[in-house]
Amino acid sequence: MDTERMDNEKMDAAASKTSGKGLVYMVVGIIAVIAIAAVLLIGFGSGEVVAKVGGEKITKEELYNKLVEYYGESVLDSLIAEKIVDMELKKANITVTDEELQKEMNEVIESYGGVDYVNTYLAMQGLTLEDLKEDVLSYLKVMKLLEPRLTATEEEIVAYFEANKSYFDQPEQVEASHILVYEEETAKEVKRKLDEGADFAQLAAEYSKDTGNAQYGGELGYFGRGEMVEEFEEAAFSMKVGEISDPVKTKFGYHIIKVTDRKEAKAANLEDSREEIKEILKGQKLNTEYATWLNEKKTEYNVVNTLAK
User: Fold this and answer.
1) H-helix segments, 147-252
2) CA distance to 175, 248, 295, per residue, from 220 (Å)
3) Dihedral pair phi/psi, residue 127, rounded to 5°
4) Measured between alpha carbons, how far is residue 301 from residues 84, 194, 260 in Å?
5) How many CA atoms lie within 13 A of 190 on its CB side?
6) What stretches of the chain adopt beta strand conformation (E)?
7) Helix (H, G, I), strand (E, B) or coil at 170
8) For residue 76, what pLDDT is reported?
9) Which residues form a coiled coil (predicted)?
10) For residues 59 and 49, is the Cβ–Cβ distance under 8 A?
């Protein structure tokens, strides 16, 4: 299908949706470097060689010291923050349940358009789904600890709404599924089977070349104008709910489109947007409050980072 839309625009949209959580969704790349190195070094004793360059040797200590030099302060600071959070959770008898963690993970995965897109996005950064899960857990821990400090006032909610009305406007949207094939004859064959009563989802799994959603019945979710290639968009927005198109040719091949729902354009309304605004403001406040709270706790616990410059 429209790879540019599905891969780039969905990822950009997902990044913007979760941007309020960015500070606490920690960047684990540096920690991963240290973790991998630690695993590699487990099998080596003190003074042992981890690499050779001609006649020159690189020892375990040299590698370890270099990692500490480049990443030590940042990693240690992250570990200190993690320790403080866990101690405060225990003190307050607060826990994050498996259900809460899975719910948040599902929301993040959905915002990126599905697990395949999440994995692609993470792979681009050298990360895995488990890395994301650890970051989401960290976010939920901090959110629970700081929630009393994150309440938005009515004035803040109204001000945010007035400044971002266009964001909350609901444009006309279509929900659709599609089956993408490369040859016109194949497209005609698929349409004939559909006309004879075949199941759309089953044919999508069997025929569609859009590997990102073929196993999910070809579902594309809701999209507005300007998100799909012109020919696809023109066809989809001209169809009725439940209607299945004839083959539609685009630069990607031939599409059989099924429209499953529509949303008419709707102007922004404060009451309809209130809960979403509260969550956005909570995320924004978390970014600033977390740093303040952490510094308070570092003083309270008399934390000393000997690697800090």
Assistant:
1) 154-163, 165-168, 184-195, 200-207, 230-237
2) 7, 16, 45
3) -120, 170
4) 8, 67, 57
5) 30
6) 49-53, 56-59, 173-181, 219-224, 248-250, 253-263
7) strand
8) 85
9) 260-287
10) yes
Report the alpha-carbon distance of residue 199 to residue 184 in Å, rounded: 20
pLDDT at 114 (0 to 100): 78
DSSP conformation class of 152? P
Radius of gyration of the chain, Cα coordinates, nearest whole angstrom: 25
Coil/strand/helix, residue 259: strand
Interatomic CA distance for residues 30 and 38, integer angstroms: 13
- Position 206 scores a pLDDT of 96
Asked if 285 and 150 count as a contact pair (C-beta separation under 8 A), the reply is yes
- The list of the chain residues with pLDDT below 50 reads 2-20, 22-31
Q: How many CB atoms lie within 10 A of CB 46?
A: 7
Residue 218 gets the label, from left (phi > 0), alpha (psi -120 to 50) or beta, of left
Q: In sequence order, which residues have a C-beta less than 8 Å from that of residue 39 and are 6 or more positions away?
A: none
Tell me which residue has tokens 């070349």.
209
φ/ψ of 166, rounded to 5, equals -60, -30
What is the Cα 101 distance to its own chain's centre? 14
pLDDT in tens, 178-209: 999 999 999 999 999 999 999 999 999 999 99
Contact residues for 52 (Cβ-Cβ < 8 A; gap 6+): 58
Quickly list H helices, 5-93.
10-17, 29-42, 60-67, 73-92
Locate 272 and state its tokens.
Answer: 């309809």
Domains defined along the chain, listed by start? 3-155+272-300 (1.10.4030), 170-263 (3.10.50.40)
Nearest to 30 by CA among 70, 80, 65: 70
Residues in the chain: 309
Six-digit token string for 66: 């270099």
Q: Is residue 218 within 8 Å of residue 208, measured between CB atoms?
A: yes
